[in-house]
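PROTOCOL LOG
Step 1. Enter all chains and additional molecules of the complex.
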Amino acid sequence: MTTLTNGTPPDLTGKNLSFKRAAANRAATLGIALCVLIAAFPLGLVAYQVISRGGSAMSLGFFTEEIARNYRTEGGGMGPAIVGTLLITGMAALISIPIGVFGAIYLNEYGKTSPLAKFIRTMSDVMTGVPSIVMGLFIYVAYVVVIGERNGLAGALALACLMLPIVIRSTEEMLRLVPDELRQASAAMGARKWRTTLGVVLPAASSGITSGSLLAVARAAGETAPIIVTVGLTYIYKPDLFDGANTTLAAQIYRNATQPFDASQERAWGAAMALIMIVFVFTIVSRIIASRFAIDKR
Amino acid sequence: MSDDPLDASSADGVFGRSATEFGVTALTTTASPQVPDDLDLGGDSRARGTDRGFRGLVTFAGLTVLIVLALILVTTTARAMPAIGHEGLWGFITGTRWAPNDDIFGTFPMLYGTLVTSLIGMIVAVPVSIGIALFITEVAHLRLRKYIVTVIDLLATVPSVVFGLVGVLVVVPFIVEWYQAFSDLVSPIPVLSSLFGPANTGQNYFTAGMILAIMAIPIITSIAREVFDTVPEADKQAAYALGATRWEMIKGAMLPHSFGGLVGASMLGLGRAMGETIAVALVIGGAFHISANMFDTGNTMAAVIAQQWGESTALHTDALVGIGVVLFAITVIINFAARGIVRRAEIQMRGSNA
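Step 2. Run joint prediction.
Step 3. Record the structure below.
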């Protein structure tokens, strides 16, 4: 009151800031914006290199033909690796998503704040941080050595171990968003808890669960380390995951990138482009589902 | 709704049509109190058993996390025992000579490489990530914010092997001259000259550290954003009301408030960086020595497993699994501590909020 009566309103423009303060503010804003550019630069570099170099390797034959056995030979494709990537990742999803969703149901619908549920929650967070190569070593020791051969299923199991904690945590987040009124309404109709959970809560959260799971699939599709440890190598189509060594795009990129020959490097770029396309399709579909059917927009 | 009057579900249909014919008063009759015969609410005793069974099923699914983690620890440790026993645990971790052909397995050069590359990665990634998080929460407009979040999300989805591919085929041949130029530049300065010595190849600790920084940025940024979001709006507005500029508000109100959370976020990024395998394996060079020169070739624990897995046999394989066990232990401890710090910081913030 008193300030306004004497005629001069308070100066809110910031024009009379001391030079030092104004400069510090400008410099900080600039620095913060620079950080975004620093992060965007590698993404742009990767996108440009993969598209320009991988694009020239693209052809119909690249997607269908078998992989060349010699690093130096030109030609050949990535057909088996593309099929292998999709099958192994798909199998991993089939294993990990049901377990993950049920685990999340336990955490959110049954366990809640019980000590066991809290412990599982912490440990699945910890499991998210376990390096992928350790998962590969684990499946090698616990499965490959036991059955005596490397095969596609071993890779799927390793990827499933990687995906499990991600699916659990993202699903639990989604279940938490389901309003309690839905559960109470279902219970008031006389439905038992398992009915409520499977018939009301899960469908209400289904879009979020799908999008979270697809994101986990996209991550798993690009994993290399567990694949080279557990899956082995092949040059031909192996549609049967139980039938000996298999291969994926990521493993082919690693294998070909380490060679000094032009033909193998071109294959690596082509495989990188194919892999990025697969991963991005999963990611984009996941985002579309998440934004179209978001639970809070109903 | 079926138009066939003989259809079993047509009862609703008849009522529905009659309601529109007879007007509003008839609408109430459409809400039939009768439950359709095929709707089973699971009220009988058989269903009670199902309830118990379902509970058991989901509990078991939840327990798989613990089972898998325990199995990882037990099976890999059991497999690695011969190699670790061969050297003794202390010798295995601190031994400086790695010579699989002579059955000598000292993993310290790799442990050193892991620590050095992760440290370089963190020195770059932590400030950059905090900057991005600040830009998203405080500086950017709503629309710009969406684009930046997309860029960071895309950065997280690019497979690590693709970063490695671009690193080894594009960056490494190109950047070695820059390294050499920088090395010449700092050669008169005592400490820096030993840290940044001559660069013979672009495959070195520093390049690996840069790639780790890129991979850690998305995870640190996303948690830093969550942390900044918990800063009470009242604190920010109070800082502005006292005449603070935006930078002074960030420095005075946001950073002290979110310090604990940022430490946790950085540790999570560190855990991710230490476990990164393929990208590092491609750009680290694969040498087994300990060098203070950041422009020298080296190796990390995860990378050596990937590099030597194909040609390893017997005790060598056991030793590689042993490296995995040590890596597992380190990352689990770091993640455990980081989650604890983040959670405690969040509780503290909520407390001050209330």
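Step 4. Note key features.
Chain A has a mean pLDDT of 87.
The two ends of chain A are 47 Å apart (CA to CA).
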